[in-house]
Amino acid sequence: MAGALPQGDPAPTDGRLPADLRIDADAPFSAYLHVPFCRVRCGYCDFNTYTSSELQGARQDTYADTLISEIALARSVLDEAGALRPLDTVFFGGGTPTLLPAGDLGRMLRAAVDAFGISPGAEVTVEANPDTVTPEVATELARAGVTRMSVGMQSAVPHVLAALDRTHRPENVRTAVEAGRAAGLDVSVDLIYGAPGESLEDWRLSLETALELAPDHISAYALIIEDGTKLARQIRRGEVPAPDDDLQADMYELADQLLGDAGFSWYEVSNWARTPEQESRHNSAYWRGTDWWGFGPGAHSHVAGLRWWNVKHPAAYATRLAAGESPAAGQERPDATAVALERVLLRSRMAEGLPIDVLSATHRTKVAGLIADGLIDPASALRGTVVLTLRGRLLADAVVRALTD
């Protein structure tokens, strides 16, 4: 299970938005639907997920109905605030959404569309464990309105999968990708690099295997050791080595080279797509700070600068909604300083870049030095935008510190 929820102010039990909240009726709106169930907990994962032994009375077979009741609450709250907008993107994340029957995912999607409407050409993504995707599942998801599947490949190397506690069969990645393709879905594959015992050649094999699948999109994330996870405890006890920063940098450079040679372009530090149309529009909504409602236990939401988060455990989540109450555990309104910091942190990671004019006068003076250090693209800076070079992507945290400290 994930760590503690953020500190914040109490959230109203009826879920109402503050009367003084000014919502832009033209701003994009997205929905995140969290499915918190997993068969096995991966050793590196600190997401809000639960195996069957941790559910404490919560039920997978009634989960869709419980989440649909939160959708009804959101519809009422946004309607009262005069802020109903059609959905531009929907994302089923987890956990393992495809542990639920495809029919349940379809019912949840229909409830969201019925409540808010959906924009023409909206992106609807489902994360999937390779072992849970069959041609029948992919077809049913596509018929329900899903447009995109994100397959959790992580690695093509058995000993790397074992180090990550991933239990899927590597050959089922191809089965899942082909099933998604046959159903007419765009397909993304997710990779992780820097696992204990993973060599640069192991990583090359994973990249080459992923490219052989001909996906539309690839995410490649450096392994981060999160406090409280099994992997963090193993490293602390000296059972496995901590990730090597230099090796991870080499792995990133290799990924950028191979993906670029295969026709992919980076649009965010850890994400590459074949075309701009195949970028993850949902994740881009987060990076751009637009509005979204997060449904499910532990899910976070953001509307017009107000943020709130739901109670973590599925049983507590279900109990709140059964009582006709909002599942929100807390809320906050970040001040201007926090909002500016987050804008730099997120927008500077995107290939579209960070407008220089949003920086303070003091921080604008830092741009020339970052160009001289090879961290920012000079031509983009002349056009008024901070765009990271390859070296800058490897040192993105240093760029953010320079533009915010």
From TrEMBL:
Q: Which is one Pfam family of this protein?
A: Radical_SAM
Q: Which SUPFAM superfamilies does this one have?
A: Radical SAM enzymes
UniProt key word Electron transport? no
Alphabetized InterPro entries for the sequence? Aldolase_TIM (IPR013785), Coproporphyrinogen-III_oxidase (IPR034505), Elp3/MiaA/NifB-like_rSAM (IPR006638), HemW-like (IPR004559), rSAM (IPR007197), rSAM_sf (IPR058240)
Keyword field: 4Fe-4S, Chaperone, Cytoplasm, Heme, Iron, Iron-sulfur, Metal-binding, S-adenosyl-L-methionine
Q: Which GO terms describe its biological process?
A: porphyrin-containing compound biosynthetic process
Location(s) in or outside the cell: Cytoplasm
- Could you tell me which residue ranges the Radical SAM core domain spans? 23-265
Q: Which GO terms describe its molecular function?
A: 4 iron, 4 sulfur cluster binding; coproporphyrinogen oxidase activity; metal ion binding
Q: Coiled-coil ranges per the record?
A: none
Q: Chief localization class? A: cytoplasm
The terms describing its cellular component in GO are: cytoplasm
Q: Give the protein family.
A: Belongs to the anaerobic coproporphyrinogen-III oxidase family. HemW subfamily.
Q: Give the function comment from the record.
A: Probably acts as a heme chaperone, transferring heme to an unknown acceptor. Binds one molecule of heme per monomer, possibly covalently. Binds 1 [4Fe-4S] cluster. The cluster is coordinated with 3 cysteines and an exchangeable S-adenosyl-L-methionine.
Q: What is this protein called?
A: Heme chaperone HemW
